[in-house]
Amino acid sequence: MVPLDNATTSMINADTEMTEKNNCQHETTQERRIDGRESVRRIINGWWQEMLCCALSIVSLIVLTIVLRRFDNQPLPQWPSGITLNTVLAFIATLCRAMLLVPVSEGLAQAKWTWFKKKPRPLKDFEAFDKASRGLGGSLELLARTKGWLVGIIAAVLLTTTIATSTITQFAITYPSRIVESGEKGIAMAWRLDERWGINDPDYAVMNEPAIVRGIKQGVHSLVRDETPFREPKCAAANCAWPQFNTLALCHKVTNVTHLVEADLDFYHGRENITLPNGIYTLPGRGHTQFSGAPTFFVSEGPAISHKYLRNVSVFDYFAIYWDGAMKTPRAVEISIHWCIDTYEAELVDNILKMNKTASHVPNLQIQNLEYQSLSIPGNDEEVYTVGSSSFRMIGSNLNESLSGKSVYRSAERFFGTSGSDMLVQATKEIAQSDAKGNSTLEYLGMETAWWIAVNGMASNVASSLTNTFLPDDPNVDGVSLQRVVYVKVGWEWLALLSIQVGLSILLLICVIIETAKARVEVIKGSTAQVLFAISAEEKARMEHGVDESNTPERDHRRQTHVELCKVGNNWILKG
């Protein structure tokens, strides 16, 4: 026999392929046509399980949304056996994912039949459809082989993204914390000197003079650099808050009046004196020698000079004079302890108290009689505070006794005084020594600055200490206790992937149903029996004799891995 050349062989193969294709198409034309009602019935009968799974995936997504909406911005649910919201989320999301994968896998199984219905395909495509439902690599291979087919694209997207569904869905829940009111009474307490103090207790200072003296002494003996705070609120919890409140209080005002001092420091002629225009007078202290001076600290009550505008609310006006024994002009300051109305804001956060004085007003005098005096915030005549008239006099008298005095400091002598001026000496010396850090020269030069600090600090502490003394024993400002609560915060955007997957699975099923109907292919899906008998006996014989395809590695591999099922009764067994 004369061998055929390549051209002749190609023509014969082409004719054979055309004949085989026509035979297949001829068989297709013999299929009976199905009316519309029959088509619907066949679709329902063939796809009811996949439709049910699509419905269940939608229901799962709706249930998941309802559960998350129920607990969004709510405290953590307390469920038995340690079940958490994340556990429920994972269960529902897994169920939803399992349901949506059923139409995807079955749709792909059916799609391979419609894929081969369109035109002749290599058997390798059949294997690609089979691998697609098994993992990421198979789905990407199917996408490459179907080359833009909508069913292949949707299937690849679904099979690729479902790997991350569980992890991404868990991100939908976070657990931040916030502060909320506990609702319990009597846990957060604060104090204020209310509007009716002078009416309800007009003789408070008279009846509680020892407490007044103690309050003054406590202020005098406190460290001048440590400001005495307003009485701190009490809270039995780690977090509390109080409403903004006003209180009657004592404040202080300090003004430098050194420019008003007249001094003659001539020890030699015996004319030494230090004088202020309001009649305040003292002699400068003498040193160890006849004509030398020594640091002098003087405190005395006196008529107001710069603070005349405080005369209606002032409790005590006094002056402090300091001379270091050498300066030409002694230093002088005017101090007034007066009534004021302070505004406070307080909160306790993680056991740390934050209390701020947001405003302080010098009140206006409204009414003055023998029993009490009425004071109001400027511009607000409705909020009127009262002070017993006798309290004015008694407080001023005790302040004068505790603060007034004259002290001369000589370095060679030990100093143990306890009067107001004596405490001023000790406070000034303590500050100067602390700032000088052992340097005697710096200590001497820093005495004046230290005196200014001591005068202001002592006045502030005395006013604050007296205010705390006036406060009632029982709290009269109710706050609220707060507790830190962990709550559920839902990030709805993290459910977008699952929602898209549910939608795509439904779209994939619809596309496969349409493709199946258009191609007039029976609903076969992943039937194993149909796969076994899909190739006719003639084609199998040709494949077994090696005339099915060109000499390819796939054919060699099939020959090496040849398997055969043999029937035994009504069952089958693998031969070999």
From TrEMBL:
Segments traversing the membrane: 47-68, 88-109, 149-173, 494-514
Domain of life: Eukaryota
Keyword annotations: Membrane, Transmembrane, Transmembrane helix
InterPro entries, per the entry: DUF3176
Pfam families linked to this entry: DUF3176
Keyword Transmembrane helix: yes
This protein's record includes keyword Thylakoid: no
Protein's name according to its UniProt entry: Uncharacterized protein
